[in-house]
Amino acid sequence: MSNINISYKELKQLEEGSYQLLDMRDESNTSYGMIPGAVVAADEEELAAQAKEYLDQGKKVILYCTKGIFSKEAAENLSEEGIDVLSLEGGYTGWLLSLMKEEQENNQKTEQSNKEAEGKGKKKELTRTQEIEKSIRKKFHKQLFSKFVKAIKTYDLVQENDKIAICISGGKDSMLMAKLFQELKRHNKFHFDLVFLVMDPGYNEMNRQIIENNAKLLDIPITVFESDIFDAVYEIEKSPCYLCARMRRGYLYSKAKELGCNKIALGHHYDDVIETILMGMLYGAQVQTMMPKLHSTNFEGMELIRPMYLIREDDIKHWRDYNGLHFIQCACKFTDTCTTCNPDGVAKSKRMETKQLIAKMKEINPYVESNIFKSVENVNLKTIIAYKKDGVKHSFLDTYDQENE
Predict the structure, then answer these.
(1) Are 141 and 153 in contact (CB under 8 A)?
(2) For 300-303, which contacts have Cβ atoms below 8 Å and span 24 or more sequence positions?
(3) What DSSP state is assigned to residue 383?
(4) Could you report the per-residue pLDDT of 367-379, keeping only the tens digit for each?
(5) Torsion angles phi and psi, residue 161, rounded to 5
(6) Among 216, 316, 325, 346, whose CB has the most other CB atoms within 10 angstroms?
(7) Rounded distance, CA 390 to CA 393, Å?
(8) Res 105: pLDDT
(9) Alpha helices, DSSP H, located in 259-340
C-alpha cells in the first residue's frame, strides 16, 4: 500500500491528459471549487466502475477528498479489488496550499522584475493582485461593483465618517466584499474608514493559512482575532450552525466596537436572501427576509449592513474562477474532516435543498428568483391573515368590521 499516495509535486510531473482526477467531496464542498480537470466521483457503489472506465482509456486514476484521508481509504479498498488507483496526498486542501505557495513566489518574481524594469524605463507587468483588481473595474464592473454601489445607495448603507468592520470568513463572498470596499474607497465622495476583520473561531492550521495567503494575494490588510466558538458548539446536537452563527456575530460586534467601528459588514448576497425567504416559509412557517441593514439589539450604536445584497452568486463564482482563486468554506469541525467527502454519510443542508429547489423552479419559470425577492417588497397587509410587529401579533379580524362601516 506504500504507493497509494501521490504528492502534488509528482502530480505536476505527469503529462497532461495521462491521468484523471476524481473529486470525492460532496456538493456543498465542490461548489466552492475543484482542482482543474477533475470530475465529481461516483458514489461508493459506482466508484469502481467509474475508475475502470478511465483506466481502460489508459489513464491513471487519482482520487482526492478534503484532506486525503477518505480518498486514501477508498484507493486502498479498490486496490484490494484489483483496481489500481492513487490518492492525492493532502487532498484538495494540500493542493490548494501548494498552489498558493507557487503563486506567492511568482508574484514576488513579477514585483522584482517590475522594479528592475522601472530603473530601465521598460514596461511593467501586472501582478496577480493588480490583474484581480482590474477584473473588478473592467470585466465584472456591471455584475459586481455597480450592484454593490446600487445596494449601498438604495438601502443607505454607508454614511460619512462611518468606520466599518468588513467581516471576512475566508470564503469567496466576504473576500470579494473586501475588494469591493477597497474599490469604493478609491472613488468615495466622503470620508469613511475600513477595518478588515477576521475572526478565527478555531480553524485548523491549514485553513488559517489559506485565509492569510488569500488576504496577502488580494492585498487585504486583515486584523485577526481568535475565539473558541467551534469548540463551544461542537457537542451541541440541535441547531449547532444557528448557534455558531449567532455567537460569531456577537464576537464580531464586540471586537468591531472595541476597534471603534460603528458598523459590521457581512457578505450575504442576493441568492442568500431569496433562499432565506423560501426557507422561512417551508421550514419556519413564517414570511420574513434577510434585511439589508439592522440595528444591533445587544450592542448600542452598532449596525449590521449587507452591501452584497443585489449581487448574484453565479457572478461571484465567475469572478472567482476567472481569476483562478480558491477559498475555504465554513471549515468548522463538522465540515473540516473527510466525513463530508463521503457521498453516503452526510445529509444535505436545508439551504442546499432550497437552492436546488429554486433551480428546478427556474427551469419552469425564469422569473422565479426575482419574484421571490420582490414578494417581500410587495406585501399587501389587507390580504394577510395575521402579522407580527414589535413582538405583538395582529389579526385581520382586529379591523375587519371597521373597514365596512
Answers:
(1) no
(2) 301/257, 301/262, 302/253, 302/256, 302/257, 302/261, 302/262, 302/263, 302/264, 303/262, 303/263, 303/264
(3) G
(4) 999 999 999 999 9
(5) 70, 10
(6) 316
(7) 8
(8) 86
(9) 270-284, 313-322
